[in-house]
TrEMBL record, chains A, B:
Residues 18-138 form the Cyclic nucleotide-binding domain. The keyword Secreted does not apply. Residues 152-224 form the HTH crp-type domain. It comes from Roseibium sediminicola. Keywords: DNA-binding, Transcription, Transcription regulation. This is Crp/Fnr family transcriptional regulator. It comes from the Bacteria. Gene3D superfamilies: Jelly Rolls, Winged helix-like DNA-binding domain superfamily/Winged helix DNA-binding domain. The keyword Cytoplasm does not apply. InterPro entries: cNMP-bd_CS, cNMP-bd_dom, cNMP-bd_dom_sf, Env_Response_Regulators, HTH_CRP, RmlC-like_jellyroll, WH-like_DNA-bd_sf, WH_DNA-bd_sf.
Amino acid sequence: MNTDGDLKKEKLLGKSFIFDALDDQARQELANFSYVKRYAAGDKIFTMGEPGQSMMAIAEGTVRVTMFTPSDREVTLNDLQAGDVFGEIAMLDGQERSANVKALTNCTLVVLERRALLDVLQRNPILSVRLIELLCQRVRRSDERMIEIAFLDLPARLAKLLLRLTVAPPASEEKPLAKLSQSQSELASMIGNTRENVNRCLRKWQKAELINLQDGWLIIRDRDRLEALAHGE
Amino acid sequence: MNTDGDLKKEKLLGKSFIFDALDDQARQELANFSYVKRYAAGDKIFTMGEPGQSMMAIAEGTVRVTMFTPSDREVTLNDLQAGDVFGEIAMLDGQERSANVKALTNCTLVVLERRALLDVLQRNPILSVRLIELLCQRVRRSDERMIEIAFLDLPARLAKLLLRLTVAPPASEEKPLAKLSQSQSELASMIGNTRENVNRCLRKWQKAELINLQDGWLIIRDRDRLEALAHGE
DNA sequence: CAACGCTAGTGACAACAATCACACGTTCTG
DNA sequence: CAGAACGTGTGATTGTTGTCACTAGCGTTG
């Protein structure tokens, strides 16, 4: 509401690579047009099919992007962290939201309305370039994921998932994590498969000493062989 | 090379909805920077992994976009017609081409280099908006396709494909086509499945009087029931 | 016309995954 | 502390799909 709040929003927006190329004035403009919204863990942020007129940048917390399959199973498409943005597509083309997003932890989001962004867009060609880059990235990721889902078997997809979940976020230090705490059901929902099959696969890998399963943790022991599995044997 | 050639390119570029919002001057600029290239049926236009520095708009002909799966099977992602553009992604972000494209018929393409477009982009904010729209569309289509592949069974995907192949192109009249001539192997490669299974499925549909198979043609008899199948029973 | 290539049709079998069913432990909670 | 809720480990069954094998028709071409 005041200068202090705006400063904070500017900083939060700066965390997203989309906006870090803007000059101070443009960032200030964006901050003026945007607002901060908080969600508690478990809250729905938006739902598939709703008209979407805004995008969100995550300042704090984690959100989960999901969809329901035709057979009504919920699958997790992605978990997003601070610095990530979501809802861009619906905002940019003014169409329906194409997924569900809910807060996994308490979250602080910076919300940007369609009208506001279009406005700033007009005066800042650099911002369009950033958006175009973002979208290209999205297209590439989607296409890749599509091929994976269509043509890799469960072990390969699961291996890919484990690797993806354990790369260090760009912000932090370099070394990949070795432990994860996701439940097997969660893993299953992320690769569009069942808990049972994920379990059987993980067991096999434990026997083969690729991973360790200990009191709820999954520990990666042989990253290289997982990489090999991820590329179809 | 001369005014005549440029006029032609302008017209060809105008066929793509991306460029039809430009004013004459901008279109003229683009025409100056672009060039026409012809390919014979069967020619490779570009290959996955190559560095990509240009995009193409189809003026005449049909091209096929394919990929190789990890297990080395070639799948058809899409067939594109006059007015469609391809190669945008690699051009826009300067990364590798993410698919193979080959000419299905003799083709006339208008090629636009990355540098040229970036140049025009700077002076024509409207063009960025168009590109952003195009990319949004791409993202939505990819995501949709991903879900389809992951969670619909063969009959549903095949039904979807048949419906997609028989909607009239936006340019032509309204009524959906009823006949197609794609071979069953082609259909299989478009839905990431085998010819044998496509065949079995089509046979069943013929018995159920959903379609007719006659001397190489596939004739749709009951579009409504196909629509039903396409949405998971 | 014989040989070849391409498309279509179909049966047999194996591999994989979905589903159901159940047992076991932990942790949370009334 | 009892019981619910959840995560985990596994077996049995069933259905779908991929692979292989073989047959057959049709058109091109040498």
